[in-house]
Each structure stands twice: as C-alpha cells, then as structure tokens.
Design goal:
single chain, about 475 residues, mainly alpha, two-stranded antiparallel sheet, 22 helices
Amino acid sequence: MIRTSFRDLAAVLAAVLLVVAAVLVGRHLQFTYGNLHVGWPPLYANWGPHLGPGTPAALVVAVVVVAYGPRVAARLPWRALLGGAWGTAMAWTWSLALIDGWQRGIAVRLTTRYEYLQVIDRFQDIPATLRDFTGHILLHSPDHWPPHVAGHPPAATLTFVLLDRVGLGGGGWAGVWCITVGASACVAVLVAVRALADEALARRAAPFLVMTPAAVWMGTSADGYFAAVAAWSIAFLALAATGHRPRLTGFAAGLLFGLTCYLSYGLTLFAVIAGTVLLLGGPRLTRPLPYALAGVTVVPLVFTVAGFNWWEAYHLLVERYYQGAGGIRPYGYWVWANLACTVLIVGPATVAGLRRTGVTLLGPLARPRARSPLNAPETGVRTEDRLGASVRVVSALRRRVVPRAGWSGTSPDVRLALLVAAAFTALFFADLSGMSKAETERIWLPFAMWLPAACGFLPRPRAWLTAQAVLALLLNHLLMTGW
C-alpha cells in the first residue's frame, strides 16, 4: 500500500510539473509574442483574487462532501443516490458560480459578444435561418455569426432560442438551464458505470463525480449542457447494451447522440466511447442496435430537411477557426498545454485514478511469465521461434485480461478502466486535431466528466476529495475565469 500510494503521488507530482511548465512557458510566449490570446495561460482567465456571495456555500458543500460523501454514497439506496448526486452537483456548481456574483457569475455569461444569446432575434424564422446558416460562418461573410454560434451546429443556438420562445429568455434563465442540465452529467456517468462495471465502483466514484473541479466551468457554460446530453446518450446506450429495456433505451441513446453531434462538431468523437460501450455490451446488442441506429437518424434528418448541411458547415468552421485566434495560437504549445488544462479540470485525484486505470489495463504486461521463450538467451533461438513466442505471449495476455466470453465477461475493474480509457482517447484525439487550441477547460468538459470515474479505484477517498475541493476553490477564488 505504501508503494502504491507513492506511485499515485508521483503521478500527481508529474501532473503538477506539467501545469507549472504550461504556466511558465505560456507566460513567456504571451508576454513576448502575444500569440496565445489568454490572460493566464494555459487557462482562459485573468489573475484576480476575490471572494463572493458563493464563498460560504462552496466551503460548506466542500466540507460536507469530504466528511460524509463516501459514507453516504455507500449506504443510500441507488435511486436516492442518483437524486442526491444531482442535487449536490447543482449545489457545488451554483456555489462556485456565485463566487463571482449573480451578474458576472451567471446572468451575463451567455450574453457577451461571443455567445449564443446575441443572435436570438435572428431566428424569428427558424427554417429560413437554418437554410442560410452556413452563409454567415466565415468572417468575411455578411452579418457573420459570433464565434460560438459559428463554431457549433445550430442545435446549440436553437436551445436558447426555444427557451426564449417559452418565456425563459435572457442570460439568467440560460445560466439556470446550463447549471441544472449540466449537473445531471454526473448522474449519467454513474448510471453507465453501474451498468457496465458494477454498483460498488459507481458508489466509490460518486463523490468525485459530484465535486469535480470541472464544476468551475460547468456553471453557465453551454459546454456543461452539451456534456450532459452526451453523457446521457452513453448512459442510455450502456443500459441498452446490458439489457435494460433495450428498445426504449437504445432509441433514446441514438436520439441523444444525434443531438450531441448537432450541438458540437467535436463531440462526434463520443463515437469512441459509444464503441467501447458496445464492445462491453457483448452479445446482447442484437436487440437494441437497430433502435439506436434509428434514433441516431432523427436529429440529422430534421436539420437536413430544414436545409442545414452539417458537412458544409463543418468545413466552413475549419476555415473560420483559422481566420481567428486559432490561426495564431501555436499548436506546438497547446498540444501539450491543453493536457495541463485537463489536469486542472479533473484534479489530482483523477490523475491518480488514471494511473490506476493504466495499471488495471496494462498490469498483465508488466508481470513476467516464468520460463518464457522471450526471456531465454538469444543464442540458438531462431527469429521464427522468437516471433512465435511473441504471439503466444500476446495470446496468453489476452486470455488473462479478456476471458472466453469476450470483453463483456471481464472483471468490473477492467470494464471501468476501458470506459475511462475510451473517454481519455477521445480527448486525446481532440487534442491532436488542433481544433482545440486553448479554452479546453470548457470545450473538453464532455470528455473530462468521464475521467473522475477512475477515482473509484482510489483508497482513502476523503484525502483525495479534499485535494479536489481545494483545487476548485483556489481556481475560482484566485482567477477571474472567462467562461
């Protein structure tokens, strides 16, 4: 246990050094060349220590979750746990947002010149606007869209248009919507972990999913809302793949995945996580898969019939991206500094959990096999023999990790590790794409919300929860975040 704890701390130390390097290198680049376009690299924020009306509430929520969260999560009935997780996540997100006050922290977040609420009045005729949507993406086009409207498919903006139509207009209601819906993402992750791994791991992960540092940006960021929609698509797919009302949950999964792709272009990478869920579901997929595929077609069909061309819009977005800050920000810095942002989003406990995820998946590779031909002296051993020995060792390792029943028959630890690894893989692909240079503390929220599930592997949860809470409180009190 001492050695294992030391390795967890070593992983956290390495992550801290990554963040420090990103801060120091980023400040040099910004002050010397001015090419990062962020105030406090690697975050889109400015230094500004402050307190606010949300400070006492945030401290209370943190103390309560650290002191009682693991015990309550272990004992509550499952449905009560889900409701409690949603309520506590809302309390945590609300309190962090209100550290900046009602106006700056919530009411005006989605009303700036970059945001969706700037164009509500341009959607008086929704079908006509959708047909003409791509004509306003590029910067040189007439009445070009604000950055966030141009950077997302129209379902993102339409959400706030429809809220306005039902009488919930303005930045305050938009913020309430994003916090309320976004906080449910942790519930969706819990549902998926229980369905694909087991309930004990889900309960252990629950306090970490509730009190994640990502809540600093979940509050009133539209990406928090996107994170919840994407998470529920995976949760319903997990239920369908494991035989829970497969037709209904399969269709719901497909419907929400289709909506996810029309909320954000980059969230098509959730196909990586969905593929892993299908892999873990095993032979039960024959029933829900047709319904999931039918559900996937609904939202794309509606928008296509209305006149919006997703592929054309995406290619125009890529051009627009490089017309703005994306064409100036250096890929060589952000390709690794984005990962430092991720450390700040998910916190030190998740870093330790990810280390244990890797050990769970790759542990067999580190265990020497007795009298293996690969360990024999090379003298007298032909290349063909060594190649054959390699194949036999790989086959043996697969049998140790993946039983005859396939991935669906693996241990709960391995299934959880695969789910977390899929989320990290999707995030890593997003990083390599170069379409997320900076601002990933909000852009990658949909992927990052799955990573704290790895904290289900951690012992001593209260110590790790304390580290998570301290990081979130420091970030929100020391920085004036841009989102």
